[in-house]
Specification:
Structural class of chain B: alpha+beta
Order of helices and strands of chain B: HHEEEEEEEEEEHEHEEH
Distance between the termini of chain B: 33 Å
Oligomer: heterodimer
CATH class of the largest domain in chain B: Mainly Beta
Strand order of the largest sheet of chain A: 1-2
Order of helices and strands of chain A: HHHHHHHHHHHHHHHHEHHEH
Largest interface: A-B, 101 and 113 residues
Number of domains of chain B: 2
CATH superfamily of the largest domain in chain B: Cupredoxins -  blue copper proteins
Number of strands of chain B: 13
CATH topology of the largest domain in chain B: Immunoglobulin-like
Mean pLDDT of chain A: 93
Strand content of chain B: 15-25%
Number of domains of chain A: 2
CATH architecture of the largest domain in chain B: Sandwich
Number of strands of chain A: 2
Largest sheet of chain A: 2 strands, antiparallel
Low-confidence stretches of chain B: 1-16, 279-289
Number of helices of chain B: 5
CATH class of the largest domain in chain A: Mainly Alpha
């Protein structure tokens, strides 16, 4: 009846997950109670859960990412405190079986459900506004993408309470992740969570790429696209090219584990190195999927707060696409130490260092955007400058690791851990927070509290360096990653400093919550009255804040880069309407429950497959098919709005 | 389900653990490979710092000088393109990368793990097997084997042939240089040398399961005479590494202390390579040799 699911799967004897689960359930119950008491269910259902508006979907992505940031960060704190304690003969407080799940979950969550989710959310929110579109190309599919990501998130979190998570590291290298060495359900949770959310990500990539290619407002040629849209295009092209590899690779591992195949097993001709090659053929583009949109955000922020156009726009666009292409040619640098031979290692070493060229060009162009500007030190600019200072160091340590003989010494060391946190925190997280602060007033109609925003920045900036400089040093001393304890007591002081750094970052995360509460309470004082709080340059700032569901009542005609900036300079910010606009009624998509319904059954199917409850998996998969068929037979997908509706609800701006 | 009893290891008597932390990492090389790698590490770092430090200083200087409140700053609100600047910003990283790419290519060949070291002395062959969660070192010519202790003569090149009996691991002695993966059904080759007598900490650098953190071993380099003495005493050990002894050793768990086998059944390494793939399929050759 319940497959392999028994009472043993629940951690009744393990205080940490039990406490965590109790706390999460309590918070969840509190939220549900609040929503019920306040009578918010109808609004929540109609305006958020079933919404297909790209802005609301984007906001939900970002919210999900922030929640998962807390989860992933708690994992980080547990690891840092374990390592601060477990020197010499001390075993620390986390046994290996638990510790191994924590670092696996930390990596998986931070990459897939914080980094990806945050960036996809920001792209969803800002890209259609920047290109003068009324929504994404496939609004319902967008909602499906989001909810599939949420289903993956739920599955990962359920593993905390029911069963266990993978103990293999975030990439689950076989043969360790094969049944012979990981017979538990942990790897299955990992695989199904990533398969479900991976489909969501791929659909989102197709959606945004189509949107950028096909739905730009009249006059917006490729050379007039805002640079964030360029980076979003590159990132989503990478998603389309790379995520099918991930799905196929994890699919093969699933076949090994469920149906006795031998793709990556030790026996019967399986080859684990095939998995390592394939997973990095996805994995390396993945880091550029994360960082390219962040580059775009910094470009927008630096130009806006310098009061200058972005320096070298064409160079920036070329550099972005160059990184996009090169990112597929470097995957082997993740395993120089597997004995590939000098020619292969040399080739991939050079290919990797070449990526530093377009990246370096970007850094210099940001520098020259600052030069001659009139810099307003609002929070987003602080993140951008903190990023340049931090990221160049991470980039340099990355180039170091790209030189095979240096990598032979530093591969898998804490130096490597420090390197990728240096680029992911200094690049992706800083970029995410810059974008969050920058577009928040557009999404909600009021700014975030500036002082608290700056405090958050300083906590992350100082905390990052405190936490990861010691790791660079430890890596050079020979400390490797994923250790649960170590005999060298000389390493302990460095580990303690790293823990202190993590605690400073914790303060930043807490302050993010405080900032949100304070800003909501002071929203009248922080009100963004005219929709353009930062003196922006691109089209999103030409709408009111928050924009109406259809973004632009009248689509603008674009005649240059930074169209809104030119409009403000020449005719008081009024955009020129595209030809024929305003005559036709608008079509606005209706809310759809398809996304949340599909995701619910996908979650049930995933959970059932993890525990081998085959009837339930079959039932859930049939429900998915039925839901899609029902949707296909629906004919009324849109609401029509005439000019009077729009004029009444669109405010003064076009 | 492999389970591991997490017993705390015997106290380390090695001097390495008492010296300051800096003195036994990759910056304190004790062999030619590690020394050459440190040189590359430091050279590449200096080359990059020559660009990185000015960039950081320029960022901070520009940010401070062009702050909105500075009435001395000359504003260029329309300045968004300059041919000479564009050429320069493409040229600087390109030149740096040309330089570093050269280092990468030459380094990858000079320090290829499979490349024998230039030396008058004949290399000592050692076969390395990673097990759950311990290291087995077989000396095929000498007919002895050792667990969690790699004893070698100082100043003599080592030729290591590595494989794994279970999952992937990475053999790494930071002070001797280059790590390399051990993978079931495949062999990798690594050449190292310890220049001076001493005890150097070794570990697995690739996560391999619950007992991973205890996969520590000591690489002990001895003067020629002392090594001969060690060999003699090892040969006197009554234990034989044959199929039953290997099966017992391969059982998942952490080795409580180092052990030696005075005799090794012939063809042990080949047999391990074959058993880790269980069936008689040829080992994949992708990354090998």
């Amino acid at each position: 009846m319940f497959g392999r699911l028994t009472w043993d799967a629940f951690p009744v004897h393990d205080p940490i997950p039990l406490f965590a689960a109790g706390f999460v359930l309590l918070v969840l119950a509190g939220v549900l109670l609040l929503v019920t008491v306040k009578g918010w269910w109808p609004t929540l259902w109609r305006d958020w859960i079933t919404s297909v508006d790209h802005k609301r979907v984007g906001v939900m992505y970002v919210l999900l990412a922030l929640v998962m940031l807390v989860r992933g960060f708690i994992d980080a704190l547990m690891m840092r405190s374990q390592l601060a304690l477990a020197a010499g003969h001390a075993p620390g407080y986390l046994p290996p079986a638990h510790y191994d799940q924590i670092f696996s979950a930390h990596g998986t969550i931070m990459i897939f459900f914080v980094g990806m989710t945050f960036m996809v959310g920001l792209m969803n929110f800002a890209v259609p506004l920047q290109i003068g579109a009324r929504d994404v190309a496939f609004p319902v599919l967008n909602s499906v993408s989001f909810w599939l990501t949420a289903a993956g998130v739920l599955l990962v979190n359920v593993s905390l309470v029911v069963g266990e998570f993978a103990r293999t590291g975030w990439l689950a290298y076989p043969p360790l992740s094969e049944l012979a060495f990981s017979p538990g359900v942990g790897v299955d949770y990992y695989l199904w969570a990533l398969q479900i959310s991976g489909v969501g990500t791929l659909l989102s990539g197709i959606n945004l790429t189509t949107t950028i290619l096909k739905m730009r407002t009249p006059g917006m040629g490729y050379s007039r696209m805002p640079i964030f849209t360029w980076t979003a295009l590159a990132s989503n092209l990478l998603i389309i090219a790379a995520f099918p590899i991930l799905t196929a690779t994890l699919g093969m591992l699933l076949l090994d584990r469920y149906l006795g195949f031998h793709f990556f097993t030790n026996e019967a001709g399986g080859n684990a190195m095939m998995y390592v090659n394939l997973i990095w053929a996805w994995g390396h583009p993945e880091v550029y999927i994360l960082i390219l949109p962040a580059f775009g955000i910094f470009s927008e922020v630096i130009a806006t707060f310098s009061g200058k156009p972005l320096f070298g726009y064409r160079s920036m666009a070329i550099a972005t696409m160059a990184i996009c292409m090169l990112s597929f040619m470097v995957w082997l640098h993740h395993f120089f130490t597997m004995g590939a031979g000098a020619d292969v290692n040399g080739f991939f070493g050079i290919a990797t260092t070449i990526i530093a060229v377009p990246t370096g060009v970007k850094i210099f162009n940001w520098l020259f955007t600052l030069y001659g500007g009139t810099l307003r030190f609002e929070t987003p600019l602080l993140w951008a400058i903190g990023f340049i200072v931090t990221f160049v160091v991470g980039g340099a340590s990355g180039v170091l690791l790209a030189i095979p003989p240096a990598d032979f010494q530093l591969h898998n060391s804490l130096f490597l851990v420090a390197h990728f946190h240096n680029v992911i925190i200094g690049g992706v997280v800083f970029g995410a927070f810059a974008g969050y602060t920058y577009w928040f007033p557009k999404a909600f109609g009021f700014r975030l509290h500036d002082g608290l925003g700056k405090a958050v920045f300083w906590c992350w900036f100082i905390g990052f360096w405190l936490a990861f400089l010691p790791l660079y040093a430890l890596g050079l001393m020979g400390a490797t990653r994923r250790m649960q304890h170590y005999p060298e007591t000389g390493w302990q002081p460095f580990m303690v400093v790293a823990l202190v750094g993590a605690l400073v970052i914790l303060a930043g995360i807490v302050l993010t919550g405080v900032q949100l509460v304070v800003s909501v309470r002071a929203r009248e004082r922080l009100r963004d009255a005219n929709g353009d709080p930062w003196d922006g340059r691109t089209l999103e700032w030409a709408t009111r804040s928050p924009p109406p569901a259809w973004n632009f009542g009248v689509l603008p005609q674009v005649s240059g880069l930074d169209e809104f900036w030119e409009a403000k300079r020449c005719n008081g910010g009024a955009l020129v309407a595209a030809r024929g606009e305003g005559a036709r009624p608008l079509q606005v998509p209706r809310p759809s429950a398809l996304g949340v319904v599909l995701a619910f059954f996908a979650f049930v199917a995933g959970f059932a497959l993890v525990w081998h409850i085959l009837w339930l998996a079959g039932l859930a998969l049939s429900c998915i098919v039925v839901a899609c068929l029902l949707r296909a037979w629906q004919t009324e997908h849109e609401v029509e709005l005439n000019a009077a509706d729009i004029a009444g609800r669109d405010g003064a701006r076009p | 389900m492999p389970s591991v009893s997490v017993d705390i290891r015997e106290p380390h008597e090695d001097s390495a653990l008492q010296t300051p932390a800096w003195q036994h990492g990759v910056l304190d090389p004790q062999g030619p490979i590690a020394a050459a790698e440190r040189t590359i590490l430091l050279n590449a770092t200096v080359i990059m710092l020559a660009v990185v430090v000015p960039v950081i200083l320029m960022t901070l200087a520009f940010a401070w000088w062009f702050r909105a409140g500075n009435k001395w700053a000359r504003r260029l609100p329309e300045w968004a393109w300059s041919g000479p600047v564009e050429v320069t910003v493409w040229a600087i990283p390109t030149l740096v990368v040309l330089f570093l790419g050269g280092i990468a290519w030459i380094g990858a060949h000079d320090l290829d793990p499979a490349r024998p070291l230039a030396s008058k002395a004949a290399p000592l062959e050692v076969q390395v097997v990673s097990l759950d969660w311990k290291w087995l070192f077989i000396y095929p010519a000498q007919g002895v084997a050792s667990v969690n202790r790699l004893v070698v003569p100082a100043g003599t090149p080592l030729r290591l042939q590595l494989t794994s009996a279970s999952v992937m691991n990475s053999f790494f002695v930071p002070q001797l240089g280059s790590q390399i993966y051990t993978m079931p059904g495949m062999t990798t080759t690594l050449h190292l040398q310890a220049d001076r007598p001493g005890s150097y900490a070794g570990l697995s650098a690739q996560f391999s399961g619950d007992g991973f953190s205890d996969m520590r071993f000591d690489a002990v380099a001895l003067p020629a005479a002392a090594f001969a003495q060690w060999l003699a005493s090892a040969r006197a050990d009554p234990d034989t590494l044959d199929a039953p002894a290997y099966t017992a050793l391969a059982r998942p768990g952490v080795a409580a202390s180092a052990a030696t086998f005075g005799h090794v059944a012939p063809g042990m390494f080949k047999a391990i390579l074959a058993t880790s793939v269980k069936q008689a399929t040829p080992a994949p050759s992708m990354a090998m040799e």
